[in-house]
Amino acid sequence: MTTQRIGLIVPSSNVTMETEIPALLGHEDRTYHSSRAALHNVDAESLHAMVGEGDRCAGELADAGMDVIGYACLIALMAEGPGAHERVERELGAVTTRHEAPCPVVSSAGALVRTLLDLDMRNVAVVAPYVPALTGMVLEYLNGYGITVVDSLSLGVADNREVGRLDPARLPELAERLDRTRADGVVLSACVQMPSLSGVEPVQRALGLPVVTAATATARELLRATGNSTRIPAGGAALDEEVRRVEH
Questions:
Q1: Which among 10, 39, 178, 191 is annotated as catalytic?
Q2: Active site residue: 51, 73, 74, 112, which one?
Q3: ∠ CA 47-130-159 to the nearest 5 degrees?
Q4: I need a labelling partner for 59 at 20 to 30 A (CA). Which of 1, 5, 7, 34 fits?
Q5: 73 annotated active-site
Q6: 151, exposed or middle or buried, with CB in 10 Å at 0-12, 13-18, 19+?
């Protein structure tokens, strides 16, 4: 089998996607390559500036001949307004074509939307590291695709470096604080920088509900775009499409 090259466009302060994606997808027959766009504080102005660097990042990865590129910053695209992931995925795909190395481009924002819809998770409870105003943008964005957030928890962290230092051991307690009465499932981390992989399976078992994160949804789409199975152990509902509700 030919080695597949997985490209990631990540914020300059991100340290999580380059660990969680390889942990999920593995290193056998895959290599991972990143291009970084400047982002320090998670605020609307900084996020918009980061999006403006997308063409450069996609071009750099295309020069190395990727099989797929993942735009790995969920809030950056959702803060751009309704449907932003559709436009950006299309535009960055065109960049790879101009560099004579066309490849599919997926995004964490689009991956989360499509995964929730595919799993029929139309009512979700959400944990997010953002300040409340940015979490509100996530809720509004999801609502635009027919996904209702029945409850959410904002951790209020504005420094993206600090987001990467959040302790995933807290996730079970945070998830328990959500009102899940009307929820079809839980988005355990609506941010690819917030470490969450180690909490996915324990929280899913404890709550008896499907659990998805921005990172597991992104991994799912990277696999699908490269023609691979999306059945990955310890990846929660996003990586086991037969999961709807799990037993305690």
A1: 191
A2: 73
A3: 65
A4: 1
A5: yes
A6: middle
